[in-house]
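Quick start: read one record
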Amino acid sequence: MAAFRESNFSTTSESNLNSFSHQNSEDSIHNFIRFHINRVSSPFLNHEITCYQEEFQNSLSDETHQKLDSLKIPIHKSLTDVSQDIKALEPHLDAYQRLVRENNMMGGYVDATDNIPPQILRAIRYFPHKWTSLKRALLRPPSMDEVGSAIRLKLARELYIQNMISTPEIRLLEQAIDELKSGRPKCNKRPRDEYSIYEQLKMALTSLPLDIVSLDKSNSDNAKITNSVHHLKEVIHDYCQYSPAPGDDYPPPELVAEWSLQAFSSIIISSGISDITQTEAEVHLYQIFFDDEESKILKISSAIRNRIQEILHPDSVDDLSDLNILCLSRFLSLMNADEVASIIRRCLILCSSDRCVSVGFTTIPKLLASYISIVHHNLGKLSFQETFQSLVETQVESELDVINLKRFNAFCKNIFQSCDFILEFGGQ
């Protein structure tokens, strides 16, 4: 959640954030999002999480690595099939260049798909499996000795304009070609036929906010967002099925959870913070991890829950800014009320312990009031607040002794009284 650290917004006032969705500012938003993603740091706690990947790999024993190698679960087809896909793509690239020359000689083209070979259009519409192979060859990382990467990029951009390729896919190809031209160290590695799962996940999660920024508000067609969401689902499933080998560029679930929360916050900023209702992209991103919690996705959804609990720990809860609170409450509003009550209950138990003095009195009431306002913005807020408070206070007796229970009840009473005040007078 890039939006969740006060210091990260030292150069951007919250009053100006809502204007992002009304300006032609895709480049600035893109740089903003990529800056925070590239920092790869915890947005609330001060410790860096760049060590996650190394610790994750080191925690796997040799025996575990051997078992993972024996499974050999591929993300896509084996690398030996890529050469066949490349050969199958060559006549389509030739046809594309021929169409471009012919249309240029005739003074340009009228229809937006005139430069796209009809064979590709037919494959997209009627033969999805064939199109998957062609797209894989079209979007593969460029190699040092490749001549036609510029042609591939031009065709890919034409397909992207027609919403036949998602934003993260085209951006990965553009980034790889830029790196090749600049001769950066990453390009000096051995030739590869696919992007690493690290690169795919990182790009897929950062592209959703960019699609929102570039969305035409006068057009209800959200095809770019739909394509990006579909692509993100595929990458997440590939990630969960992938068996990392030693040295693989494989991010651990904790890092994926961090990226997911950062992407969610960036979506809120990109959409504008004045609208209290959730956007389509917010709901889609949440549903990828929590709607159908298949066993293979549980490791990411569990890591996200653990990250939220870290955020609401006494050591970090008072560091939340108002923007932090808004992003977190928007995320909690998509969760089940019982689960949210459990998260808040744990937070209140920790903050009311004898080692904590006046921790959370400023931020927790704001978080609760924001959450309740979002969930019941058109219903009786105070009545729901009473119901939610009873949910939070259930099962506490079994977790605390008499002294700590007394502290909890007193602390909880003060927190919800402050929440009452904010709900009743906060908007005046």
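Confidence is low (pLDDT under 50) at residues 1-26, 36-57, 67-80, 187-191.
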